[in-house]
Write a structure and sequence with these properties.
The chain is mostly beta strands. It has two helices and 13 strands.
Length: 244
């Protein structure tokens, strides 16, 4: 699928001359036509790494927005500046791009702050919602938002959020993220539960008693009829799954 890349990073990188003030050459510079473009090779690298870090890039639109170098920097003249992504750096949200002098009297290296925005469809609130609100269909809609504004996962299906409660208040148009939602409790300690064993091509179940509360995403211990204690994950009302 195509990824629309809106590269608004106003970065001028020249490769065949030196400057009295090299810092000026790597500062974003507005022109009558708008900001100059990030070198194509680096733009492609930022987009590729961003897509690779996403579970489902889909038809996301990636935008790179520049910051500025520290005005106090005094860099030696340089005939060739090489942009690069620092090792292990994932271009997501607020991050940085490395700039190093590879042809000049001093081999300097600096980092340019950038913000990578990844625009895609996600569930957002239709109005401001207070902490503790129970989500209904009227509270939710799907819209294009910057999913890279936080590392917490977003949702694409409104049905998955119906009846969930907010742990904190959110503004109108804000993306609903996993960390906005209260953890669901599927059952209490001492409750009778169904323990389901699932594997390749088979499923079996038995009754048991929960030894601790069944909180979403947290392991729970269940005592079955033989007295054996099995650990599984709560997946619904009075239901625990064990996968093999």
């Amino acid at each position: 699928m195509l990824v629309a890349v809106a590269v608004t990073l106003g970065l001028t990188l020249l490769t065949s001359m030196s400057w009295a003030d090299p810092r000026a050459a790597v500062q974003p510079a507005a022109t009558a036509e708008g900001d100059s473009a990030l070198p194509a090779a680096l733009a492609r690298s930022v987009v590729d790494v961003t897509r690779g870090a996403m579970a489902d890039a889909g038809d996301a639109r990636v935008e790179v927005v520049p910051g500025r170098l520290d005005a106090r920097l005094r860099l030696a003249p340089c005939q060739q500046i090489e942009p690069y992504l620092p090792p292990g750096m994932v271009p997501w949200g607020r991050t940085r791009v490395g700039l190093r002098c590879v042809s000049g009297p001093v081999a300097w290296n600096v980092y340019l702050p950038v913000t990578v925005k990844v625009w895609r469809k996600a569930v957002v609130s239709t109005a401001a919602l207070a902490a503790g609100s129970e989500l209904s269909a009227a509270d939710l809609q799907v819209a294009e938002v910057d999913v890279a504004g936080s590392s917490a996962p977003v949702f694409t299906d409104t049905a998955r959020l119906l009846g969930r409660r907010l742990v904190n208040g959110i503004g109108a148009g804000a993306a609903l993220r996993a960390d906005n939602l209260r953890v669901r409790q599927w059952f209490a300690a001492g409750d009778k539960v169904t323990l389901v064993y699932r594997g390749d091509g088979f499923e079996a179940s038995t009754d048991g008693q929960a030894l601790n509360s069944g909180m979403e995403g947290q392991p729970v211990r269940v005592r079955v009829g033989s007295g054996q204690v099995i650990t599984g994950l709560p997946t619904g009302e009075q239901r625990v799954e064990v996968r093999s």
